[in-house]
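Why should sequence recovery work at all? Because a backbone constrains its sequence more than one might expect. Tight turns favour small or flexible residues, buried strands favour hydrophobic ones, and helices have their own preferences. The token representation captures these environments compactly. In the example below, the structure is given first.
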């Protein structure tokens, strides 16, 4: 019997939350439920006997790589993903130590180097650009010719027996080896070849299986560089390069019955290769405008392609370079090519996402069909810009809805899921009723996303009708239906989820637990700011603070002011953070009443004064007496909190502890009312 320690599972949760389970699919919402109750999750996971564990498998689909090329991809069941990630964390060092050392600069792909707090699994310095950079350097120093080889469909062709043998060689326990092979067999539907394509954790399995091929090439005396299935062999003459292809093909066939892709395999002179490498390396700008854009992002990120940048720190000169005109010029130049380089397009969207600069949003949405092979990175970019785009999101939503009707989108389950996920993550895209109408004719994978959209928009009446589908739903759709119960009333929600919490799978229990408690947590801002949840209903559970309702605030200045206050919501400075939110609350309420007063929309004001002259208590009385809110208890509660923070002394440590226990509710309540009054102002 093999059971893992708690540490691998703790790290797996960190990794999956921070780095996602895959770059191809939307992040499963189930990971949030796991993160909300990590102790419960780890307690259940530690009971798992790895050797006898029955894998659930995953959901499979076809993902476009370019206009006419595709690859199969798998998103593992989130519980499976946790267990596999924990296994890789536990035994990854043993696999890495048996590979050709990274210091020899031969194999550049997926060098295992996990970081504890950031959740990184692989060395970020060992990447695609460094592979091409070293290859270019070797071509320049050796001269002659370079054999460029590409192994055909490598992940899908890995023999399970080969992987099993290599895992045994590196010393992975037999129970873990057998379990990994069972997972691969499950995903390949009982076949003897293929590992899941997409999960970060399976990259190291592929590298483990390829190691004998690397060592055979070294034994033949070749100098080469490799990244996954791309191999560059450096030779003195054309004939040597041709012979190198023969030797490589022979090694691939004898080792694993693999073959080369004839379309991508070629021999180039060293000079031709260097020119080719300069074109391939994504970090090399093609135009002056592109160079300027990348220089700004590199300067702000200190050259780190994974570091997110605070949009607020951009200077006017930076914004001029990252303008809509410049970004559209670059993207249009990519699309103008007869065969657009989607590797580069994906890279460019990822770099823009580091900043969340909004200039490319209109073009990206208007040309969704043309960008479809890069849709996952494009969608991530759109989400990064949600707080900075000042246009009308509803208009963008109309365009995305139209794209869902395009034949190529309708024909692709994957593209449909990515676009629907935008509606779930960006409520301001609206169009929920039109999306719900697609439910009956959609596949289970697409239905899950529609359920998520309905849950985001709290369409409880529609979700209630879906309850009877639970017994026949597949596990992915079933969990979405369970999460949708968070929109029900307390008694209905508690009663319906009780049996699931008692009889469901371990993951379903966590989703149900989150759904049962979610209305008091950050995922659901208050439905009716005029009659909010009573102030005594405060979250007691300690958890990381997130406020997704901020994305729905249309006023960019208000959004920025709120976001500037949030970093102060820490145990040391929580009183300051709440003071800043309280100040913004009073300002926004007053601005609304001033505009309403100016336009003659108020029946009366206290003492017939201009709202500019009113104190906060009078402002609250004014919105109540004018029927703008139906109940003022919560507003008065926020006024009291605001006064305590503005006029009270520095809180003691014990008082700060109490504030932190309640701060999720308090801050969410402030933000909900800020949005409420700002929306009313915009409607006047």
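From this structural description, the recovered sequence reads:
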């Amino acid at each position: 019997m093999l059971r893992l320690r708690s540490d691998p599972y703790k790290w797996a949760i960190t990794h999956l939350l921070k780095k996602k389970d895959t770059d191809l699919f939307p992040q499963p919402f189930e990971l949030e439920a796991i993160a909300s109750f990590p102790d419960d999750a780890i307690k259940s996971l530690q009971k798992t006997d790895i050797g006898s564990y029955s894998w659930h498998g995953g959901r499979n689909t076809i993902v476009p790589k370019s206009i006419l090329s595709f690859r199969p991809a798998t998103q593992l069941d989130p519980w499976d993903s946790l267990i596999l990630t924990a296994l890789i964390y536990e035994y990854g060092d043993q696999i890495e130590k048996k590979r050709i050392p990274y210091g020899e600069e031969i194999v550049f792909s997926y060098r295992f180097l996990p970081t504890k707090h950031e959740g990184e699994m692989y060395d970020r310095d060992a990447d695609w650009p460094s592979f091409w950079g070293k290859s270019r350097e070797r071509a320049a120093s050796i001269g002659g010719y370079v054999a460029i080889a590409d192994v055909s469909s490598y992940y899908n062709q890995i023999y399970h027996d080969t992987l099993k043998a290599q895992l045994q060689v590196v010393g992975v326990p037999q129970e873990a080896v057998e379990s990994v092979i069972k997972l691969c067999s499950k995903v390949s539907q009982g076949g003897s070849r293929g590992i899941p394509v997409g999960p970060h954790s399976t990259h190291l399995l592929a590298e483990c299986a390829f190691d004998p091929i690397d060592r055979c090439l070294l034994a033949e005396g070749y100098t080469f560089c490799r990244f996954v299935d791309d191999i560059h062999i450096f030779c003195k003459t054309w004939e040597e390069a041709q012979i190198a292809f023969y030797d490589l093909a022979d090694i691939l066939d004898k080792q694993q019955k693999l073959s080369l892709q004839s379309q991508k395999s070629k021999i180039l002179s060293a000079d031709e290769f260097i020119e080719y490498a300069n074109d391939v390396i994504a970090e090399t700008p093609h135009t002056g405008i592109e160079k300027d854009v990348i220089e700004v992002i590199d300067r702000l990120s200190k050259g780190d392609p994974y570091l997110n940048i605070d949009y607020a720190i951009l200077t006017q000169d930076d914004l001029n370079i990252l303008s809509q005109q410049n970004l559209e010029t670059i993207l249009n130049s990519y699309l103008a090519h007869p065969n657009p380089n989607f590797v580069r397009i994906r890279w460019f969207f990822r770099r823009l996402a580091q900043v969340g600069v909004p200039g490319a949003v209109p073009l990206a949405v208007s040309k969704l069909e043309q960008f479809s092979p890069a849709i996952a990175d494009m969608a991530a970019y759109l989400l990064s810009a949600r707080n900075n785009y000042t246009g009308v999101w509803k208009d963008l939503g109309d365009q995305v809805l139209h794209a869902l009707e395009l034949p190529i989108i309708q024909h692709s389950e994957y593209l449909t899921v990515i676009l629907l996920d935008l509606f779930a993550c960006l409520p301001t895209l609206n169009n929920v009723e039109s999306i719900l109408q697609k439910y009956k004719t959609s596949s289970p994978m697409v239905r899950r996303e529609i359920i998520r959209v309905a849950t985001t928009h709290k369409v409880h009446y529609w979700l209630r009708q879906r309850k009877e589908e639970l017994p026949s739903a597949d596990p992915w759709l079933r969990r979405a239906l369970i999460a949708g119960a968070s929109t029900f009333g307390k008694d209905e929600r508690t009663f319906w989820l009780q049996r699931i919490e008692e009889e469901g799978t371990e993951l379903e229990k966590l989703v149900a637990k989150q759904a049962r408690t979610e209305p008091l947590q950050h995922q659901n801002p208050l439905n009716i700011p005029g009659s909010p949840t009573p102030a005594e209903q405060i979250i007691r559970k300690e958890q990381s603070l997130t406020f997704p309702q901020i994305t729905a605030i249309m006023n960019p200045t208000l959004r920025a002011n709120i976001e500037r206050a949030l970093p102060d919501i820490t145990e040391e400075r929580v009183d300051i953070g709440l003071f800043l939110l309280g100040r913004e609350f009073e300002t926004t309420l007053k601005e609304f009443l001033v505009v309403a007063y100016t336009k003659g929309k108020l029946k009366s004001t206290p003492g017939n004064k201009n709202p500019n002259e009113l104190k906060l208590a009078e402002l609250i009385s004014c919105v109540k007496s004018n029927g703008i809110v139906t109940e003022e208890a919560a507003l008065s509660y926020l006024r009291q909190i605001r006064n305590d923070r503005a006029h009270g002394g520095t809180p003691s440590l014990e008082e700060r502890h109490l504030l932190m226990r309640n701060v999720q509710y308090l801050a969410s309540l402030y933000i909900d009312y800020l949005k409420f009054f700002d929306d009313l102002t915009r409607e006047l």
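A few observations help interpret the result. Residues 439 and 447 are 6 Å apart (CA to CA).
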